[in-house]
Amino acid sequence: MSNIIEQPRYSCALGAQQTVLTIPRAIPIVHSGPGCSSKIHGALATSAGYQGEGYAGGSHVPCTNSAEKEVVFGGEKRLEETIEGSLKVLKGDLFVVLTGCTSEIVGDDSESVTTKYREEGYPIVIAETGGFKGSNYYGHELVLKAIINQLIGDVKPKVRQRVVNVFSVVPFQNPNWRGDLQEIKQLLNSIGLEVNILFGYESAGVSEWRDIPNAEFNLAFISMGRNRNRRIT
Amino acid sequence: MSINLNLPEIEPRERRLGSILSFHGKASQLYEKSLGAKLKMQDRTFSQCGSCASGCAFVSNSIILDAAVVNHAPIGCAGDFSGFNNVRHQGATHRGLKADNLKAISTNLEEKDTIYGGADKLMEAIREAKKRFNPKAIFINTSCASGIIGDDVESVADELEQELGITIVPVYCEGFKSKIWSTGFDATAHGIVRKLVKPAQKKSKDIVNVFNFQGSHSFTDVLGKIGLKPKYLFPFSNVEDLERMSEAVASTHICETLGTYISAALEEVFGVPEVKAPVPYGIEWTDEWLRELGRITNREKLVEKVIIEEHERIKPKLDELKSKLIGKRVYVLAGDSFVHSIVSACRSLGLEVVGGTAFHHDQVYDNDYGEVNSIGNMVKMTGDVENYTVCNKQPYEFIHFLKELKPDVLVVRHGQISTVGIKLGIPSFQVTDANLGIAYDGVVELGDKIYETLRTRKLVENIAKHSESPYTDWWLKQDPFTFEKGER
Q: Are the Cβ atoms of A131 and B77 closer than 8 angstroms?
């Protein structure tokens, strides 16, 4: 039995674009066909309770808008141009390259292109989120891993007492994510914990992500959280 | 242009209509340069997300009442399902119909399907669509993924037509195949003409095909005044209406970008004349449109009488609006011809048009009639637009023009674009119902909406005060066309 879907309530792995957009001053760079980013905005922002575009979402998202040429001859050059432009035009503390179906099926080496910029010192990471690979829950996880592994990498933790990382709702997928995270942070603060909430208005942005290794423990407010917790630590 | 119904797929607009995605200058210059279709498509080295043909194909075939759509794609491509479900409900309310849910299924292509092929899954989805919705026809909308892996959609359609006994219409709308998302309108139209439309048994004397979106029935009154009846297509029509499009006395549409392929095909293949006049936006354009309809249907005298009566009827309201809107400066952002239509209507309201941005530009149309050239009509009948640009959305470019020209109000057609204006502190009106500005009453309605929008200024300025721009200071000092390739 296959798994065709009539009234979808989630999006594809590239839906992680919305995850990136909920980190203050983080900007996705989408390497995909021309319609993916807008459709994801439609599914996870507009039609999920008019959640808005935030800082650099909606029509502002940089995208390679890959066409026939990129499918036939490869899209690495196009990705390079788009990264160059994004770094100049947009104010971001973190850029996350996300790949779509087209670039993944034709086999672009998007990782090498991105790594080159990271090695030059730009805050840029990549998550391979081809839509056929899974849902936006899966994409969310790929983005978490990408940032933690590539941006933070192997650092020696300077653990501070009573600091916690919160891994919770998938933003946008859960329309109440802003309020939920705000409340969780407030509750934890009230029992004397310092919180890396990571997403939304209450997050300090990329500096907070860099602080992840220094926390005393992770708090997971998600089903399957135990497994995810283990993988991250 | 000749329509070839033997080919399952149409050529994308950039090859068929010489469509382009970049230009800046005066609208009159673009009109002149487009004669002979000499302008070449130029890319940008940096771009922001656009839209794709599959979205436009779905706009056209997802709201046909007794048809179903199978979207042969990974689940993200069905990201527009929920939006169109909403649109279907809203549109049904506008039209006084019972609201029901979208009849659409995604094949939810996964990694293993991209390796072993998705044809089996497609067949299963089509059978399931037949079982769940019992439709009279099923559309298969393709995607980047199904196109690149090379699923033989045509054979699947043929095989299941035999098995299920209903028409199955493949619509080739792979996102990567055309840089012009409006190619998707043509893809659905081509599928419908190729597989569904039948030769007319009996020609109608008063039915006019009206190609439109899911908006209000604003053609009914104006056509009724000259004894004609609109058949609104494709949203909220039935498969039988599509089959009988060949019986109409004429075809017209709300926008050249949406309606010219289907109109040209019906004229060439089935002899249904296309109304060769500007679309009915703005007073003067509506006059010309009615005159042409009168000529096709032998109602010339009646039309002249109606024109005089209508002008008199709306004059008090129009004068009042003009006095309220006097001196206001408007900027229009929309898809190709829709810009020209809105400019025409705005000028009938006495507004000053300071600029326009079209999300693509077709240098020619699927027919050879100069009368259907919307940019030519705009320039010749309503005047030039000094600041005219073409880009596929690209807010990083057009914020420059908005900041420089400081219009009092923006009129836009697309979601996510009005937001750009509002964040800059410019009151913005999104024309979600594209039938809003139709004919004489439409001009008044649009004027009312623009006036209402102008009154949001304080709110919008307040929002702008609290919005942080994502663009660097460096970029705001650059030439907006820095990233455009080729001759500038």
A: yes
C-beta of residue B442 within 8 angstroms of C-beta of residue B318: no
Give the SS3 label for residue A175: coil
Contact A43 B415 (CB under 8 A): no
**Which residues numbered 91-150 in A keep a CB inside 8 Å of some CB on B?**
91-92, 100-102, 105-106, 130-136
User: Where in chain A are the domains?
Assistant: 13-152, 163-232
How would CATH label the architecture of A163-232?
Answer: 3-Layer(aba) Sandwich (3.40)
B125 interface with A at CB cutoff 8 Å = yes
pLDDT digits (tens, 9 = 90+) for B85-96: 999 999 998 888
pLDDT in tens, A107-163: 999 999 999 999 999 999 999 999 999 999 999 999 999 999 999 989 999 999 999
For A179-223, the pLDDT digits (tens) are 999 999 999 999 999 999 999 999 999 999 999 999 999 998 876
Q: Which positions in chain B touch A64 (Cβ < 8 Å)?
A: 47
Question: What is the distance in angstroms between the Cα of A94 and the nearest Cα belonging to chain B?
Answer: 12
pLDDT in tens, A177-190: 999 999 999 999 99
CB nearest to A33's CB, from B110, B175, B469: B175
Check B475 against A3: CB less than 8 A apart: no
Inform me whether the pLDDT recorded for A226 exceeds 70: no
Whether residue B403 is contained in a domain is answered as no
For B:342-401, CB contacts with A below 8 A are 392-393, 395-396
The CATH homologous superfamily of the domain defined by A13-152: Nitrogenase molybdenum iron protein domain (3.40.50.1980)
Q: Three-class SS of residue B238? A: coil
Q: Given this model, what pLDDT does residue A224 score?
A: 52
- Closest CB from B49, B110, B111 relative to A63: B49
DSSP state of B433: S
Burial profile B221-260: b = 16 or more Cβ within 10 angstroms, e = fewer: ebbebbebbbbbbbbbbebebbbbbbbbbbbbbbbbbbbb
Residue indicated by tokens 């050249």: B256
What gap in Å lies between CA A225 and CA A231, rounded to an integer?
A: 10
Is B479 touching A (CB cutoff 8 A)? no
Rounded CA separation B26/A11 (Å): 41
- For residue B388, give the 3-state DSSP assignment: strand
The shortest CB-CB distance from A12 to any of B76, B393, B472 is to B76
DSSP B51: -
Spatial distance between the Cα atoms of A219 and A223, rounded to a whole number of angstroms: 12
